[in-house]
User: Fold this.
Amino acid sequence: MKNKMENLNSISKTWRKIRDDFTKANIDNASLDARLLAEHAFKLNSLELATNENQQVTEQQLMRLEELAKRRLNGEPVARILGKKEFYGLEFKLNKKTLVPRPESELLVDICLEQIGENQNLKLLELGVGSGCIIISILANNDNLVGLGTDISQEALEIAKSNARFHNVLERIRFLRGNWFERLNTNKKFDVIISNPPYIETKEIATLAKEVKDFDPVLALDGGEDGLEPYRIIARNAKNYLNDNGFVIVEFGIGQEGEIIEMFLGEGFTLFEQKLDLSGIARALVFQNLKHFAD
Assistant:
């Protein structure tokens, strides 16, 4: 940082200096990032930061904020620095084995809640649960559901369990370590299977933004040579774990919908719905395991 932070001794001037440094470094959301880091460094909420602008900051607070700002200038996302991120109006703890929740993934929660409606005692499976933000948000907004989340990472499952406890849904959710369906018994059937699997082509990972390639877990990004290997696994196996007329809901990357639709149709699913995100980009697909009655 070019100027000595010690010369700036009010809350207002201090965090705004950080904002300006972030802006010069072409960091997206510079003002928001600076405010969030200042709140954390000064142990203030957003209202307190605004109403205590003239308060003097201590040397310890300045040093703490300076260290946080350096990490952000080095490309580390604010959510990684803080170890938490808001998703669907709820706060989720993160660790190095979990993706930072993306706003577009909230679409999966909307779709699932819409499909479930007022139905009672339904069972939900999430493959690749990560921080648990998707399945926990769903359960937190519908008391009639029980869920199971799987993940290959024990560290991810531990943070997901902590988040489930924090949001008071732990009694309605179980977590199981395993790769996709490998630890599941086919006697166990679900009404909805949901997943935001890795969908980046292996060769593309090195070209991603620094915030992603250097700080997100590669296992949660790498979808194989063409980015679609997880979808093949899900399409091939989902019917073994899905009740009649149940749904599979998946998120995907830009332009991948055609091949994914072909996969699921080839496994006997019916395309129920395709959803766009807030930017108007195709982002989620809903397939149904329709029960076919004999004539």
